[in-house]
Sequence to fold (391 residues):
Amino acid sequence: MFILIKDGEVFAPESLGERDILLAGRSIAAIEDDIPAGLNLTNLQVISAKGKFVIPGFIDSHVHILGGGGEGGFATRTPEITLTDITKAGVTTVVGCLGTDGFGRSLISLIAKARALEEEGVSTYLYVGSYQVPVRTITGRIEDDLMLIDKFIGVGEVAISDHRSSQPTIDEIARIAASARVGGMLSGKAGIVNVHLGDGARKLAFLEEIAVKTEIPITQFLPTHINRNPNLFEDGVEYARRGGYVDFTTSTTPQFLQEGEVKSSRGLKIMLEHGVSSENITFSSDGQGSLPAFNAKGEFIGLDVGSCQSLFTEFRDAVLEEQIDMAIVLKVVTSNPARILKLSRKGGIKAGFDADLILLDQDTVEIDSVIAKGQPMILHKDVLNKGTFGR
Ligand SMILES: CC(C)C[C@H](NC(=O)C[C@H](N)C(=O)O)C(=O)O
Ligand SMILES: [Zn+2]
Ligand SMILES: [Zn+2]
Fold:
């Protein structure tokens, strides 16, 4: 199957200007300024991208594909994701994880769900573990899981500075990072540790201390939810300026924003203004994860459900509201996660890369169509670009 995407304005994420793109099967075959539509190729489909931006499919590096939640009891378990939840947001690659509930949800089910989504057309990877320490594994050892199970690219989301964590010691976190690092090395994977940061006062202290006191590089960690409160966000700016990676959670609620959560598009602008390298920042959605609220006494008040749609919403707001150059904003949802998570052939529009693309309407910056592994994704137009709050 060949697809020729003609006359689009291409961001790879860097701007390539107007280019034609030839897809062959699941790969990008060629990117040139003029590929004749009359190519004598059998079953060639020509798609006009006139008036469209053509950008890499988004990589969502933190999605509860199996559902999550449960912080308010069984009835608050959140639903598992559907393919359309992912593709309507322009997401073509997801990294799945377990969260608070590493007991009622299993890694085997997580692997099964990841394989299901892969068969349905998107690309999936996983973190081994959940909030809890010791880290839950399939084989009993992080290194063995990374070496034996292709979908596992790292460990997470391991919780620190949170009343729902296992209250791990700094040594336990260092040892998890050491195992992830060596397991990753031996299997050619990132071996990244996706760290859940809660609202606790210790914030990033463990990670900062490990980077200073041990041989583990700070880039072994991808701390997420960095924007969840202004106090943590402020430390996150400093942490990122010193070379650490930081991940913004794009799912939010009006209440969280009122209580001081930093809107991801705004947080990106602030970090760039403070001299943080755009290479060190990622966005992820926490899709299908719970967004629970607790009162000052730690009592559960209620919860919302995260959505992949928020990843697109915050990308669009960063471009339109924060007026950040699109090529820069694209990095945080394409080439940065691809590089940090060592996802080869992902996160860019380059010959030989997977054919994961989004066609955006240039006037509205809304999604026109999504192609994943060379297959056009059927988007149910009526739900397209409708976020959790119907935005
Ligand atoms: C960043 C905040 C707003 C949401 C965040 N979500 C998770 O960590 C996932 C959730 N606990 C689950 O297991 O489904 C949180 O709970 O702190
Ligand atoms: Zn989390
Ligand atoms: Zn999460």
About this structure: The first strand starts at residue 2 and ends at 11. The two ends are 36 Å apart (CA to CA).
